[in-house]
Predict the structure of Aspartate--ammonia ligase.
Amino acid sequence: MHLIIPESYNPKLTVRETQDAIRYIRETFQDEFGKQLNLSRLSAPMFVEKSTGLNDNLNGVEQPVSFTMQDEGDATIEIVHSLAKWKRVALKRYGFGMHEGLYTNMNAIRKDEDLDNYHSAYVDQWDWEKVISRDERNLDTLKDTVRQIFKVIKHMEHEVWYKFPQSVHHLPDEIHFVTTQELEDRFPDLTPKERENAITKELGCVFLMKIGGAMKSGKRHDGRAPDYDDWSLNGDILFWYEPLNQSIEISSMGIRVDADALKRQLKLADAEDRLQYPYHQMVLNGEVPFTIGGGIGQSRLCMLLLGKAHVGEVQASLWPQEMIDQCEENHIHLL
């Protein structure tokens, strides 16, 4: 457990006012986001069969919550970590066309998460995915999509200011693009997290690109599952977050693997055994569309826009009693 307590923290909104703001932010953002990216809302599963290979393996060490079902024999069912792969199959299954996409409310359990101001065992995000052409699998497409998402987030700042002027946290006017290698070259003696803090403090908001593969040092900036994002065409949207004096990640996203990238990255990750799964076979055989997609944290966005000190102020989850007590002593009211 790691907890940051801001000095003289003032939540500004009561718990009930905060609940009103959460509802407003979530409903308004998803409507604006869907319009901006041409996405339709779909219902999505909370669990999938392990044998499909559809679950997100995250960094490869986190264990999903699993169980069996009465009518499914001895098949292992897993609570999703995210819907990164499921969405791509859904686009094919439901007949989405070129430049059409979907978004969904994704709820997950990540029981191995290290709990702190940003991280919870409960995950709530907008998972989204959009069809693109093979020729659009490039940095221009990636950057243009990032700018569209930033535009919606920035617009939300103004919407929240209109409704809750006493509480809105002001955001920078521009997003900058930086690669993990550029950060390593510039800050060789810092850890990856320290590099993210340094660059976001300087620039306000960055899209940190090319996460998952090894840099010149032979180290990775951060882990990324090898079978959904193309590591050369992905990244995280990071804001400098003054209330906690560090960066905050709002979105992880990228252009998805084609057959070549899938085989290459699975080999690098020593995970070629996954090629047997139905999802991976669909990618290899060209049976799913080329796509771009990602996740946007719902609670993280509410936290950012309202200047909250802890994600537990904008979502109901479980926290160690020590953390609850320490937060309460400092006017941080966990739901």
About this structure: Residues 15-329 form a domain with the BirA Bifunctional Protein; domain 2 fold (CATH 3.30.930.10).
